[in-house]
Amino acid sequence: MANNTVTVSGMFGSGKTYFADAPVVIDISGLAWPEASPFNVVRVDVVYNGCVVGGFHADTGRQAEISFDVSSALRAIWSDYGFSGEVAAAQAALSPGDGHAIQREYREYLLRIRTEYISDDGVFTVTKCEDEYGNTDIPGGQCLTGGLTERERSAIPSKEAADVSWWEKSGVRYGDASTKPVSSPERVGRDSITSWVDVKEHYTESIFYPATFNDGHGQADDSPASQAGWTGHAPLVLRDSQEYCDFIFVNRRGAVETCSALMLEAMDIGVETKTYTRVERPSFKPSRSLMTLAEGGPRRAWQMSSGAQTREWAEWWITEFLPARRHWMLYDGSYVPVIVEPAKKGTTVYDRAKQQMPGVAFTVTLALEG
User: Fold this and answer.
1) CA neighbor of 103 nearest in space, from 329, 256, 326, 330
2) Residue 316: how many CB atoms within 10 A of its CB?
3) How far apart are the C-alpha atoms of 253 and 251, rounded to whole Å?
């Protein structure tokens, strides 16, 4: 079975890194087909740690080039990743200090390409493809969990530039895996923690800082201990009578970030009960009695709000925090998984008829029972 040399280009290249949830298109060229074959199929397998995590195929119609979007396979590479370790890292940052960091290394993958057709002598033929260096396991690139919005992708000048290294030079913010606005300070509670997310050459790093820390000389400061890294984004520590609650969530780029929400004066505790008829054991005077059983245990729900925010921050709460796939809330000294739901279906972020700053209301329910 002879090998066929092909060229894999497009978004791939040496050292390129991509968000797995965003479209990642590969271009395959250099394909050759016999004219008599009724079908000319290309099959592409995405390989991670020696295992095939996704397969793609199509009939080229005897064309020499074809493209595939392999992002679904890249998402599978990150399907086993657990964020519990990063939540534990944030827990470690609750005490004053220089912050606590956790690194999320990029994951490399390979491509295996083969062609299927009927040869000139009428035999079904499967041919392995290799790159210009003779590799049948063709280097694909690196990927990290998360994605980009359509608006962000539209700002990318070319498909070849759609990698993380381009975003490092984009000037969006110092840590471009974060989605927090930089136009105004983030409002956090007095005892809250804040996060910073950096995209490095080989990994993404989430760093957690106490909002208030001790400078080592007995003096408390209201700024995080990250020094110059916070020049573009610093929290505003609120020292009023309002109670704030800390959250950790996974943003759309797969990064763990923090936020601090205003606790409203409302907490609901619900217990569902059902009534059954219980038949007593036979006796001289047969009787029946009723009993009730609580099912599921009590469920606690809190009414919370982002508090008064600027237009940009209110939009961030609606488009980033509320739709996040996973949330944790600081509860009794530990971060526990919770369910976050909007208080209403529609929220007005900006209204010229109103002078006050907008706020985003939502409900938080413990995702644990028992």
Assistant:
1) 256
2) 22
3) 5
Q: Give the residue ranges of DSSP H helices in the chain.
A: 71-77, 84-92, 150-154, 164-168, 311-316
Sign of CA dihedral 33, 37, 38, 44: negative
Cβ contact 214:228 at 8 Å:
no
Count other Cβ atoms within 10 Å, centred on residue 32.
Answer: 13
Contact 156, 162 (CB under 8 A): yes
Residue with tokens 């996040």, as numbered in its chain: 324
The encoded tokens of residue 316 equal: 């961030």
Domains of the chain: residue spans and CATH: 4-82+107-166 (2.60.40.10), 171-366 (no CATH)
Angle (CA) 248-253-255 rounded to 5° is 35
Collect all residues with Cβ–Cβ distance below 8 Å to 42 and sequence separation of at least 6: 28, 31, 57, 58, 60, 66, 113, 114, 115
Kindly report, residue by residue over 298-314, the tens digit of the pLDDT: 667 888 888 878 888 88
Average predicted confidence (pLDDT) for the chain: 79
pLDDT reported for residue 264: 76
